[in-house]
From TrEMBL:
The keyword Phosphoprotein does not apply. Its main location: membrane. The chain crosses the membrane at residues 33-54, 66-84, 90-116, 123-142, 148-169, 208-228, 234-256, 268-285, 291-310, 331-351, 357-375. This is MFS transporter. It comes from Streptomyces luteireticuli. It holds the Pfam family MFS_1. It is found in: Cell membrane. The lineage of its organism: Bacteria, Bacillati, Actinomycetota, Actinomycetes, Kitasatosporales.
Amino acid sequence: MLLFAVACGCAVANVYFAQPLLVTLGERFSLGSGLLGVVVTLTQAGYAAGLLLLVPLGDLTDRRALITLQLGLLSAALLAAGLAPGAAVLLTALAVIGLLAVVTQTMVAAAAALAPAAFRGRVVGAVTTGVITGILLARTVAGVLADLAGWRAVYLSSALVTAALAVLLRRALPAGGPPQPGVPYRQLLRSTVSLFARHPLLRIRGGLAFLLFASFSTLWSSLAQPLSGPPWSLSHTAIGAFGLAGAAGAVAAGAAGRWNDRGLAQRTTGVALGLLVVSWIPLALTRQSLWALAIGAVLLDFAVQAVHVTNQTLIHEVRPDAGSRIIGGYMVFYSAGSALGAIGSSLAYAAAGWPGVTALGAAFSCAALLLWATTRHTAHTAK
């Protein structure tokens, strides 16, 4: 579980490295403020494609071979990004990085499948803590490395780490036959869609993930712009350090897993979504106070990860034998929401500045709370 957690954190970090570097990448590759969100959106688009096309393979092929192959290819894509001579190569490499970073979800599904049912929430929470830690450290590490050695060092260093993890996992993970041998790949993909069509709980939790991560991405995809300019004019390191304010998300992941095992999933969801809405009040004051930003980031990350762990625990119980397909399908909602938040926040910032960004994030948060409030009774029995 520890190795899964570390590997998940390192893999998912690649999706978020660009966030504190957006202003620098925009200057280096001549991207205007309205286009900076494209950098994040392309990575998320690649991630969404990988969720649909690659994660279901965990129900069809040897997971050890699948995980290590994806990590090896991810290392190559990171190397291409770090050596990119122009915008076209960089953006293409980032899309491929997103595509292959879905190995994170293959590992989450594998961990859930290995866990006894009575402790599944705890195990998913532990592995998700690794994911969250990777997301948090991604921004901080990217900022520090960019200040010390330039933005290219971020991707080149990650390429080395990812290659090393591929070797370690190849040696550590047990080999296993396909969970569903003989199932054609096309049928496997169609069954992912049919699972969500058949089970209301999957659609409800997917909808929550879409709105949840649209709100999350609205903040983190645009934060570098107000912090890089007056009145703060912060360095890459300082901007990345604000990711550590979201360490509450790691706490929330472990706690939410335990609460789910106690049958408190609905209560956890409602309280967390309420906190998500409230978080945008201090976030609106970012230009006046960095303390307000830190408080808002803590509340937002705690809320997002508490609901995320709850979602993953509940959906896996619908069809444990189809865990990879269910988590892959669920994460498509996650990725689509993240992409919408990224491009939406860039457009909102270009049109109305930081007040426009906070209004957009608050709207996504309120919509998530409304969705939960109107479906919570259905979700008790919808399987």
